[in-house]
Specification:
- Keywords: ATP-binding, Nucleotide-binding, Transport.
- The strands form 2 sheets. Strands 6-7-8-3-9-10 form a 6-stranded mixed sheet, sandwiched between helices.
- By secondary structure, it is α/β, with parallel strands linked by helices.
- Helix 6 runs parallel beside helix 7.
- The radius of gyration is 20 Å and the shape is globular.
Length: about 260
Protein backbone atom coordinates (compact mmCIF):
# COMPACT_ATOMS: atom_id res chain seq x y z
CA UNK A 1 0.00 0.00 0.00
CA UNK A 2 2.77 2.44 1.01
CA UNK A 3 6.22 2.21 -0.49
CA UNK A 4 9.11 4.40 0.64
CA UNK A 5 12.06 4.59 -1.73
CA UNK A 6 15.47 5.85 -0.51
CA UNK A 7 13.90 8.60 1.55
CA UNK A 8 16.03 11.36 3.06
CA UNK A 9 15.16 14.24 5.35
CA UNK A 10 18.04 16.42 6.47
CA UNK A 11 18.07 19.31 8.93
CA UNK A 12 21.24 21.15 8.00
CA UNK A 13 23.98 18.60 8.50
CA UNK A 14 21.80 16.25 10.55
CA UNK A 15 20.34 13.33 8.57
CA UNK A 16 17.18 12.47 10.52
CA UNK A 17 16.04 10.09 7.77
CA UNK A 18 18.95 8.76 5.78
CA UNK A 19 18.00 6.51 2.89
CA UNK A 20 14.99 4.73 4.42
CA UNK A 21 13.34 2.14 2.15
CA UNK A 22 10.34 0.08 3.25
CA UNK A 23 6.93 -1.26 2.26
CA UNK A 24 3.70 -1.23 4.25
CA UNK A 25 1.39 -4.02 3.15
CA UNK A 26 -2.31 -3.28 2.83
CA UNK A 27 -4.29 -4.76 5.72
CA UNK A 28 -1.28 -5.06 8.02
CA UNK A 29 -0.55 -3.60 11.44
CA UNK A 30 3.11 -2.74 11.13
CA UNK A 31 5.17 -1.82 14.17
CA UNK A 32 7.97 0.73 13.82
CA UNK A 33 10.55 0.59 16.59
CA UNK A 34 14.03 1.88 17.21
CA UNK A 35 16.12 3.78 19.74
CA UNK A 36 15.47 7.45 20.40
CA UNK A 37 16.71 9.54 17.50
CA UNK A 38 16.31 6.71 14.98
CA UNK A 39 14.17 8.90 12.69
CA UNK A 40 10.81 7.21 13.26
CA UNK A 41 8.70 10.31 13.87
CA UNK A 42 10.47 12.24 11.12
CA UNK A 43 9.70 9.39 8.72
CA UNK A 44 6.03 9.58 9.76
CA UNK A 45 6.03 13.34 9.22
CA UNK A 46 7.50 13.04 5.73
CA UNK A 47 5.09 10.29 4.65
CA UNK A 48 2.13 12.24 6.05
CA UNK A 49 3.12 15.48 4.36
CA UNK A 50 4.00 17.39 7.53
CA UNK A 51 7.60 17.69 6.28
CA UNK A 52 8.97 17.79 2.75
CA UNK A 53 11.61 15.17 1.98
CA UNK A 54 15.13 16.22 1.06
CA UNK A 55 15.05 13.47 -1.55
CA UNK A 56 13.44 10.12 -2.23
CA UNK A 57 9.92 9.05 -3.06
CA UNK A 58 6.73 7.86 -1.34
CA UNK A 59 3.93 6.07 -3.17
CA UNK A 60 0.47 4.99 -2.03
CA UNK A 61 -1.27 2.27 -4.04
CA UNK A 62 1.15 3.03 -6.86
CA UNK A 63 0.48 6.78 -6.87
CA UNK A 64 3.34 9.17 -6.15
CA UNK A 65 2.38 11.15 -3.03
CA UNK A 66 5.81 12.60 -2.27
CA UNK A 67 5.47 16.02 -0.69
CA UNK A 68 1.67 16.20 -0.90
CA UNK A 69 0.21 18.33 1.91
CA UNK A 70 -1.63 16.65 4.79
CA UNK A 71 -5.10 17.83 3.68
CA UNK A 72 -4.67 16.15 0.28
CA UNK A 73 -3.49 12.94 1.93
CA UNK A 74 -6.40 13.16 4.37
CA UNK A 75 -8.84 13.06 1.47
CA UNK A 76 -6.97 10.03 0.09
CA UNK A 77 -7.48 8.19 3.39
CA UNK A 78 -4.00 8.64 4.90
CA UNK A 79 -4.22 9.92 8.48
CA UNK A 80 -1.62 10.51 11.16
CA UNK A 81 -1.96 10.94 14.92
CA UNK A 82 0.62 12.51 17.21
CA UNK A 83 2.40 11.50 20.40
CA UNK A 84 0.70 14.41 22.17
CA UNK A 85 -3.02 14.32 21.44
CA UNK A 86 -4.52 17.38 19.73
CA UNK A 87 -8.09 18.02 20.78
CA UNK A 88 -10.43 21.01 20.91
CA UNK A 89 -10.37 21.15 24.69
CA UNK A 90 -13.41 23.41 25.16
CA UNK A 91 -15.64 21.29 22.94
CA UNK A 92 -17.32 18.04 23.93
CA UNK A 93 -15.98 14.68 22.85
CA UNK A 94 -18.90 14.28 20.46
CA UNK A 95 -18.32 17.74 18.97
CA UNK A 96 -14.63 16.94 18.46
CA UNK A 97 -15.60 13.99 16.30
CA UNK A 98 -18.24 15.95 14.42
CA UNK A 99 -15.57 18.47 13.39
CA UNK A 100 -13.57 15.90 11.44
CA UNK A 101 -15.37 15.41 8.09
CA UNK A 102 -14.49 18.12 5.60
CA UNK A 103 -16.64 20.26 3.33
CA UNK A 104 -19.60 20.42 5.69
CA UNK A 105 -22.57 22.50 4.59
CA UNK A 106 -22.35 24.76 7.63
CA UNK A 107 -18.84 25.89 6.66
CA UNK A 108 -20.25 28.07 3.86
CA UNK A 109 -21.77 31.41 4.86
CA UNK A 110 -24.37 31.22 2.09
CA UNK A 111 -25.68 27.95 3.47
CA UNK A 112 -26.02 29.35 6.99
CA UNK A 113 -28.52 31.83 5.59
CA UNK A 114 -30.45 29.77 3.09
CA UNK A 115 -29.89 26.07 3.89
CA UNK A 116 -30.37 25.85 7.63
CA UNK A 117 -32.52 22.74 7.34
CA UNK A 118 -29.82 20.94 5.33
CA UNK A 119 -27.21 21.98 7.90
CA UNK A 120 -29.35 20.73 10.78
CA UNK A 121 -29.90 17.38 9.06
CA UNK A 122 -26.18 17.00 8.37
CA UNK A 123 -25.39 17.75 12.01
CA UNK A 124 -27.87 15.08 13.14
CA UNK A 125 -26.18 12.54 10.87
CA UNK A 126 -22.73 13.51 12.13
CA UNK A 127 -23.86 13.32 15.76
CA UNK A 128 -25.30 9.85 15.17
CA UNK A 129 -22.07 8.79 13.48
CA UNK A 130 -20.00 10.19 16.35
CA UNK A 131 -22.11 8.27 18.87
CA UNK A 132 -21.54 5.05 16.90
CA UNK A 133 -17.78 5.68 17.01
CA UNK A 134 -17.81 6.37 20.74
CA UNK A 135 -19.80 3.21 21.34
CA UNK A 136 -17.27 1.22 19.25
CA UNK A 137 -14.45 2.63 21.38
CA UNK A 138 -16.35 1.94 24.63
CA UNK A 139 -16.29 5.61 25.68
CA UNK A 140 -19.92 6.52 24.91
CA UNK A 141 -20.25 7.69 28.53
CA UNK A 142 -17.83 10.54 27.71
CA UNK A 143 -19.80 11.93 24.74
CA UNK A 144 -20.81 15.15 26.53
CA UNK A 145 -17.57 15.58 28.49
CA UNK A 146 -15.26 18.46 27.56
CA UNK A 147 -12.35 16.95 25.64
CA UNK A 148 -9.88 18.92 27.73
CA UNK A 149 -10.98 16.98 30.81
CA UNK A 150 -10.09 13.57 29.37
CA UNK A 151 -7.15 11.52 30.60
CA UNK A 152 -4.18 10.92 28.31
CA UNK A 153 -5.45 7.49 27.30
CA UNK A 154 -8.97 8.76 26.65
CA UNK A 155 -7.54 11.49 24.41
CA UNK A 156 -5.67 8.81 22.44
CA UNK A 157 -8.97 6.95 21.99
CA UNK A 158 -10.55 10.20 20.81
CA UNK A 159 -7.79 10.60 18.21
CA UNK A 160 -8.43 7.07 17.04
CA UNK A 161 -12.12 7.93 16.87
CA UNK A 162 -11.35 10.83 14.53
CA UNK A 163 -9.98 8.40 11.99
CA UNK A 164 -13.31 6.56 12.08
CA UNK A 165 -15.28 9.67 11.10
CA UNK A 166 -13.83 9.53 7.58
CA UNK A 167 -12.95 6.77 5.15
CA UNK A 168 -9.47 6.09 6.50
CA UNK A 169 -7.35 3.59 4.59
CA UNK A 170 -4.07 3.82 6.48
CA UNK A 171 -3.43 5.36 9.88
CA UNK A 172 -0.02 6.28 11.31
CA UNK A 173 -0.08 6.16 15.13
CA UNK A 174 2.81 7.88 16.92
CA UNK A 175 3.46 6.47 20.41
CA UNK A 176 -0.15 5.66 21.13
CA UNK A 177 0.88 4.26 24.51
CA UNK A 178 2.73 7.34 25.78
CA UNK A 179 1.28 8.37 29.13
CA UNK A 180 -1.48 5.76 28.93
CA UNK A 181 -2.25 3.31 31.73
CA UNK A 182 -2.27 -0.40 30.97
CA UNK A 183 -6.04 -0.79 31.08
CA UNK A 184 -6.67 1.97 28.55
CA UNK A 185 -3.75 0.79 26.42
CA UNK A 186 -5.42 -2.60 26.19
CA UNK A 187 -8.65 -0.87 25.15
CA UNK A 188 -6.76 1.03 22.45
CA UNK A 189 -5.15 -2.20 21.28
CA UNK A 190 -8.55 -3.90 21.10
CA UNK A 191 -9.91 -1.03 19.00
CA UNK A 192 -6.95 -1.14 16.59
CA UNK A 193 -7.34 -4.90 16.12
CA UNK A 194 -11.08 -4.57 15.50
CA UNK A 195 -10.62 -1.73 13.01
CA UNK A 196 -8.04 -3.81 11.20
CA UNK A 197 -10.08 -7.01 11.10
CA UNK A 198 -13.60 -5.65 10.75
CA UNK A 199 -13.05 -2.51 8.68
CA UNK A 200 -9.83 -3.23 6.82
CA UNK A 201 -7.76 -0.40 8.29
CA UNK A 202 -4.02 -0.55 7.71
CA UNK A 203 -1.94 0.74 10.64
CA UNK A 204 1.65 1.74 11.21
CA UNK A 205 2.48 2.09 14.90
CA UNK A 206 5.46 3.76 16.57
CA UNK A 207 5.67 2.42 20.10
CA UNK A 208 8.29 1.64 22.76
CA UNK A 209 6.10 -0.81 24.68
CA UNK A 210 7.21 -4.15 23.27
CA UNK A 211 4.35 -6.04 24.92
CA UNK A 212 1.92 -3.82 23.03
CA UNK A 213 3.87 -4.19 19.78
CA UNK A 214 4.01 -7.95 20.20
CA UNK A 215 0.29 -8.15 20.81
CA UNK A 216 -0.93 -6.25 17.73
CA UNK A 217 1.90 -5.84 15.21
CA UNK A 218 3.24 -8.10 12.47
CA UNK A 219 5.58 -7.31 10.84
CA UNK A 220 7.88 -5.11 12.91
CA UNK A 221 10.39 -2.74 11.32
CA UNK A 222 13.38 -1.48 13.29
CA UNK A 223 15.04 1.82 12.39
CA UNK A 224 18.40 3.17 13.50
CA UNK A 225 20.30 6.28 12.43
CA UNK A 226 17.67 7.20 9.86
CA UNK A 227 17.46 3.96 7.92
CA UNK A 228 15.79 0.56 8.17
CA UNK A 229 17.92 -1.87 10.14
CA UNK A 230 15.75 -5.00 10.15
CA UNK A 231 12.24 -6.29 9.45
CA UNK A 232 10.40 -9.42 10.59
CA UNK A 233 8.39 -10.79 13.47
CA UNK A 234 9.05 -9.32 16.90
CA UNK A 235 10.91 -12.47 17.92
CA UNK A 236 13.13 -12.20 14.85
CA UNK A 237 13.78 -8.53 15.55
CA UNK A 238 14.71 -9.23 19.18
CA UNK A 239 17.17 -11.92 18.07
CA UNK A 240 18.83 -9.69 15.47
CA UNK A 241 22.40 -8.78 16.44
CA UNK A 242 22.28 -5.41 14.64
CA UNK A 243 19.09 -4.48 16.46
CA UNK A 244 20.57 -5.42 19.83
CA UNK A 245 23.66 -3.35 19.15
CA UNK A 246 21.52 -0.39 18.03
CA UNK A 247 19.69 -0.46 21.37
CA UNK A 248 22.48 -1.50 23.73
CA UNK A 249 25.73 -1.17 21.83
CA UNK A 250 27.10 -4.39 23.29
CA UNK A 251 26.00 -7.24 21.04
CA UNK A 252 24.56 -10.64 21.74
CA UNK A 253 25.83 -10.99 25.28
CA UNK A 254 23.02 -8.65 26.39
CA UNK A 255 20.26 -10.38 24.40
CA UNK A 256 18.49 -11.35 27.62
CA UNK A 257 18.64 -7.76 28.81
CA UNK A 258 16.89 -6.61 25.62
CA UNK A 259 14.04 -9.03 26.27
CA UNK A 260 13.79 -7.99 29.92
CA UNK A 261 13.81 -4.26 29.29
CA UNK A 262 11.32 -4.47 26.43
CA UNK A 263 13.58 -2.20 24.40
Amino acid sequence: MIEVHDLHRHFGGFRAVDGATLKIKEGSITGLIGPNGAGKTTLFNVIAGVLKPTSGRVTMAGRDITGLPPHDLFHMGLLRTFQIAHEFSSMTVRENLMMVPGEQAGEQLWNTWFKRRAIAEEERRLAARADEVLDFLTIAHLADEKAGNLSGGQKKLLELGRTMMVDAKIVFLDEVGAGVNRTLLNTIGDAILRLNKERGYTFVVIEHDMDFIGRICDPVICMAEGHVLAEGSLDEIKANEQVIEAYLGTGLKNKDQLAETGA
